[in-house]
Design brief:
alpha/beta, 2 domains, Rossmann fold, 18 strands, Quinone Oxidoreductase, Chain A, domain 1, globular, seven-stranded mixed β-sheet, six-stranded parallel β-sheet
Length: 374
């Protein structure tokens, strides 16, 4: 079938993207679902820094590629072997398909699925197939999803069924921002009520972490960013303290305000500088968690003696250490009860043809979560 999609033909385009147009809106061929696959009509897809890092070349991926990994939609057609979904079901897409059989999956850690990671790196679906084509040649999938399009054929292992009452534009945010941010707080760090927390980097994932910290009852929630506008939003969402990371004495000010540092610091900006700040404001015996994705060549150095003598913990968090089929319904229920006001993260809606402008806004820090509605 012929569909309209946003294709990245090469990485490293110059900003502004509205002028250089790294994403080309083109007609491509989409195969109907094979065994274990599902055709989904895209309802909404969020613009995320993980997409931006492919556009600017910081996270190299094979091209040409249809981008988009945070999305929700409606089941349109089922491939053979899929008997637990029905046409018309609403689904959220998850950007790491889990095979269910490798060692990480068997240990209850589907975010680390080994075949899923291989498929994502190669730009294929979990089966190894590519269902997107243009002029007789294959087009790669982005993280098994490729949601900046009218339709997507994906592995059943990339989908979580949700209640039809949740609007699809809101549901889309749960596939990446909420799973990653809230999950980092609840699953990775296991923050308990009464703890002190700091979040460095207030994009969609960082603000989701902030919402998670508030929801679990953290007594102190410190928000840190370079944007005063985002710091203002953080206060509205429950931050008890806000600091601009650009201040020359930001670390000392945060440590003074929190009595020596916080118990849990979350780096969500995807930069070594942000990670350094997060580590420095973590108190003795505390935990520093990073879910940001800097370029693969960037490294973070820390004083080993300090790690030992202060019994520090540094942890990575991917997709919030989530089990999506378990956690997604839980987070949606918390949202419905007013505990996770995810809708407050929505910066606006875009048409597919406006996607390059949307990435300019994201690049410039002028948006939290924009949603493309095909």
């Amino acid at each position: 079938m012929k569909i309209k999609a946003a294709v990245l033909n090469r990485m490293g385009a110059e900003t502004p993207y509205e002028r250089s147009k790294p994403l080309s809106i083109e007609e491509v061929e989409l195969d109907l679902p094979g065994h274990g696959e599902v055709l989904v009509k895209i309802g909404a897809a969020g613009l995320c820094h993980s997409d931006l890092s492919v556009i600017d070349g910081n996270r190299p991926r094979p091209t040409p590629m249809v981008l988009g990994h945070e999305a929700a939609g409606v089941v349109e057609k089922l491939g053979s072997g899929v008997d637990d979904l029905a046409v018309g079901d609403h689904v959220v897409m998850v950007f790491v398909p889990s095979c269910g059989h490798c060692l990480p999956c068997a240990e209850g850690r589907p975010a680390l699925c080994e075949p899923g990671a291989v498929a994502n790196g190669a730009g294929t679906l979990l089966s190894g197939a590519r269902r997107l084509h243009r002029n007789g040649t294959d087009v790669h999938h982005h993280l098994g999803v490729s949601a900046f399009a009218e339709y997507a054929t994906v592995s059943r292992r990339s989908l979580v069924k949700i209640d039809r009452e949740l609007p699809l534009d809101e549901a889309a945010l749960f596939g990446c921002a909420v799973l990653t941010g809230v999950g980092a707080v609840i699953n990775t760090a296991k923050v308990q009520a009464g703890a002190s927390v700091a979040v460095i980097g207030l994009g969609g994932v960082g603000l989701s972490s902030l919402l998670g910290a508030v929801a679990v009852g953290a007594r102190r929630v410190v928000a840190v960013d370079l944007s005063d506008e985002k710091l203002g939003l953080a206060r509205q969402l429950g931050a008890t303290d806000t600091f601009n990371a650009g201040g020359p004495n930001a670390v000392d000010e945060i440590k003074a305000a929190t009595g020596g540092g916080v118990e849990f610091a979350f780096e969500m900006a995807g930069s070594v500088r942000a990670m350094d700040l997060a580590y420095k404001i973590t108190r003795r015996g505390g935990t520093t968690v990073t879910a940001g994705l800097p370029p693969p060549t960037h490294t973070f150095a820390l004083p080993q003696v300090n790690l030992v003598a202060e019994e520090r913990t540094v942890k990575g968090s991917y997709i919030g250490t989530c089990v999506p089929s378990r956690d997604l319904p839980r987070y949606i229920e918390l949202y419905r009860r007013g505990k996770l006001p995810v809708d407050r993260l929505m910066s606006g809606h875009l048409k597919l043809e406006e996607i390059n402008l949307g990435f300019d806004r994201l690049h410039d820090g002028k948006a939290v979560r924009q949603v493309v509605v095909p």
